[in-house]
């Protein structure tokens, strides 16, 4: 295992954690005119400005603030059109439900493919084969799950099995509403299954873990606020990028623990076909997502502590900021998201059985 002190790695971030974290909307007028001559002949004439809504999960706020600014400059130079991007953030499962219920997302950048699949399964908002439309199964960046403890690690937490010790308060969001929480849950489950030898023993291990959870926030950012600003809990199970943002915001108050094993988290992106066709925004929405795969997009991804998925240059540039973790995949360990959702997160499945008996 590796112990990584977040305070040694990151600079100060002025405003990483806005208190209004539940599916708030952020609007950025992003395209000031660029100087110089640009070749625009490859694109049709566009209206003076266009607005996109990116519906995303909790911890991507800071990433998309910078990404949106870069994309708007790129699009303005290429087409002459200004872009205004609105952001909506919350628990990934809740965000998927909001799109299904009519939230007019042009693009969905959710925490996991299972939440994105729901957009096809409930209303055919996107095609079944949506993952084939962009490289790397429509996952332009990856992440993983780590542990965050208070400075000096006063409770001696080094790995997943420390989270079930009596008297340890664990902060993690609700896997019924949060994509990050599902990655957390499955990472703990697979650790226990490998160490203890069976799903039955893994289930009991995870049940013990959730008996140590005092509160379930609806999203990952809510859990970060509970831990960092409300001083709840001894350990936070967190997205890797969220853990490192804590280092930026709070300096030496927290340390990051790399567990012995974790899960390769693969957030997914897609245009929301029904909405972009109705609004006439398909061209800009598709280019917005493709921009995530460019060298510039991949560098922005790495800068915000996500792992670039496709650019070898960006992977090499940002490799040193990440712990060298032993990662398993959802497909290898759980048979993919459809199977994992049925067995663990559907109504009456393992999480409900565990939590109702808490």
From TrEMBL:
Keyword Transcription regulation: no
Annotated Gene3D superfamilies: Periplasmic binding protein-like II
Keyword Acetylation appears in the UniProt entry: no
A GO term from the CC aspect: periplasmic space
InterPro entries: Sulphate/thiosulphate-bd_CS, Sulphate/thiosulphate_BS, Thiosulph/SO4-bd
A GO BP annotation: sulfate transmembrane transport
Gene Ontology MF term list: molecular carrier activity; sulfur compound binding
Keywords, sorted A to Z: Periplasm, Signal, Sulfate transport, Transport
Sequence intervals crossing the membrane: none
Domain of life: Bacteria
Main subcellular localisation: periplasm
Protein localization: Periplasm
Protein function: This protein specifically binds sulfate and is involved in its transmembrane transport.
PANTHER family: SULFATE-BINDING PROTEIN
Family: Belongs to the prokaryotic sulfate-binding protein family.
UniProt xrefs under NCBIfam families: 3a0106s03 (TIGR00971), PRK10752.1 (NF008022), PRK10852.1 (NF008106)
UniProt-recorded name of the protein: Sulfate-binding protein
Organism encoding this protein: Verminephrobacter eiseniae (strain EF01-2)
Higher taxonomy: Bacteria, Pseudomonadati, Pseudomonadota, Betaproteobacteria, Burkholderiales
């Amino acid at each position: 295992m590796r112990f990584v002190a977040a305070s040694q790695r990151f600079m100060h971030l002025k405003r990483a954690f806005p208190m209004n974290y539940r599916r708030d909307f952020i609007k950025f007028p992003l395209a000031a005119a660029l100087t110089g001559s640009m070749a625009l002949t490859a694109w049709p004439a566009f209206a003076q400005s266009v607005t996109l809504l990116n519906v995303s999960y909790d911890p991507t706020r800071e990433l998309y603030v910078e990404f949106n600014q870069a994309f708007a400059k790129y699009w303005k130079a290429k087409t002459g059109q200004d872009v205004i991007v609105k952001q909506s953030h919350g628990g990934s499962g809740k965000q998927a439900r909001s799109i299904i219920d009519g939230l007019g997302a042009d693009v969905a950048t959710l925490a996991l493919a299972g939440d994105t699949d729901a957009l096809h399964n409930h209303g055919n908002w996107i095609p079944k084969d949506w993952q084939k439309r962009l490289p790397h199964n429509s996952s332009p960046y990856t992440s993983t799950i780590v542990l965050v403890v208070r400075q000096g690690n006063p409770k001696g937490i080094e790995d997943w099995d420390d989270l079930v010790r009596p008297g340890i308060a664990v902060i993690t969001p609700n896997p019924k509403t949060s994509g990050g929480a599902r990655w957390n849950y499955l990472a703990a489950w697979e650790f226990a299954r490998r160490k203890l030898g069976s799903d039955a023993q893994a289930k009991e291990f995870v049940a013990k873990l959730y008996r140590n959870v005092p509160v379930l926030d609806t999203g990952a950012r809510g859990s970060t606020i509970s831990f960092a600003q409300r001083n709840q809990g001894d350990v936070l199970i967190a997205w890797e990028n969220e853990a490192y943002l804590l280092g930026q915001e709070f300096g030496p108050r927290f340390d990051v623990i790399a567990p012995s094993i974790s899960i390769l988290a693969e957030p997914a992106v897609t245009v929301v076909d029904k909405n972009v066709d109705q609004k006439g925004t398909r061209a800009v929405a598709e280019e917005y997502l493709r921009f995530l795969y460019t060298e510039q997009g991949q560098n922005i991804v790495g800068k915000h502590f996500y792992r670039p998925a496709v650019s070898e240059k960006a992977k090499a540039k940002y490799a040193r900021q990440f712990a060298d973790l032993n990662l398993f995949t959802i497909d290898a360990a759980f048979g993919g998201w459809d199977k994992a959702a049925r067995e663990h997160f559907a109504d009456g499945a393992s999480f409900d059985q565990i939590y109702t008996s808490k």
